[in-house]
Amino acid sequence: MHKLLDRFEAVQSEMNANVPRDRFVALSREFSELSPVVAAVKQLQAAEAAREEARGLLSDKEMAEIAREELDLLDAELPALEREVQLMLLPKDAADERNVILEVRAGTGGDEAALFAGDLFRMYERYAQKQGWKVELISASEGEVGGYKEIVAEVSGKGVFARLKFESGVHRVQRVPATEAGGRIHTSAATVAVLPEPEDVDVEIEDKDLRIDVYRASGAGGQHVNKTESAVRITHLPTGIVVAQQDEKSQHKNKARAMQILRARIYEAERERIDRERAADRKGQVGSGDRSERIRTYNFPQSRVTDHRINLTLHKLDQVLEGEALDEIISALIAEDQAERLAALGEEA
Predict the structure, then answer these.
(1) What element of type H or E holds 4?
(2) What is the DSSP string of 72-109?
(3) Half-sphere CA count of 242, side-chain side, radius 13 A
(4) How many Cα atoms are found within 13 Å in the side-chain-facing hemisphere of 119?
(5) β-pair type (169-175, 294-299)
(6) Distance CA 342, CA 167 (A)
(7) What's the pLDDT tens digit per position in 249-260?
(8) How many helices (H) and strands (E) does the chain have?
């Protein structure tokens, strides 16, 4: 903690000096990140000093009773302060403050899966609105009877990836389809991918590593669709990642959108590779990024949502899909992740 306080003072001192603008911007960002941590550390230190002072007064007959009351209060307060500081000192995910590319795709279940993918995307839209984030549609392929076969959007705002990163995975729904006359419960699924948007310095893509194909767009779009080769497909040869984009009428805009998605997918693939290497001996951790596992079930007949990673069940499905109660699940996932990382640090210490 002494190193942290020393660094905070050094940043303050350098900010007051005559430094170049780009250096000042970097220092300001570090200052804003360190400020709440330093405040929590100083609060903890003040409480510890007060406890030592109260202990020293226990031998004073006139002050002993007041000192004992003070000690009781401080002993109850200190564990929470210590945990707050521990959490703040945990290594942060460098991508936590990034905007994200949100991809929702219908999985097994045909039309019902597409409808469910639409439900999930609207859930994230509503949640984003409540968080004060912005959602910008990148591309969408609608289902035959509604919903989406695939929908991709950019979500931007403060701490987007930090709160959405545990949503990646397979989401399962159990309900009676509107088209099912027999009233039987069907199970279908949709996959969600939350990709942190990289900065230019994060991902280097060389022209020689790309194959770019242009072609005529297909599907809805009026007369324009078959007249120009505005659709773009980009293949990143080293990784085999392919991104196709045709929603814009301009080939230039489609290429720009495709490159945006490609950079995010390459960045996430590299993050996952590093995570797998780091966590090779830690199985079952929250946020492992294993998108093959079912992470959550939405059961309509029982109005129940269950997150299987932390065995959390909420009987408020409507509120979750409205984006209101989703934060309860996200906060529980973040708390579980923090607890596991604190435990891991304790084992290493």
Answers:
(1) helix 2-15
(2) HHHHHHHHHHHHHHHHHHSPPPTTTTS-EEEEEEE-SS
(3) 5
(4) 21
(5) parallel
(6) 22
(7) 888 888 888 988
(8) 8, 11
Mean pLDDT of 122-138: 95
**Do the Cβ atoms of 255 and 234 come closer than 8 Å?**
yes
For residue 327, give the H/E element and its range: helix 326-348
Dist. CA 147–CA 45, nearest whole Å: 54
Q: How high is the pLDDT of residue 105?
A: 93
287, pLDDT greater than 50: no
E-assigned strand segments in the chain: 100-106, 134-142, 148-156, 169-175, 186-196, 210-215, 231-236, 241-245, 294-299, 304-307, 312-314
List the one residue out of 224, 232, 266, 267 whose CA is nearest residue 249. 224
Torsion angle of the four alpha carbons 173, 179, 184, 188, in this order, in degrees rounded to the nearest 10: -20
Mean pLDDT of the chain, nearest integer: 83
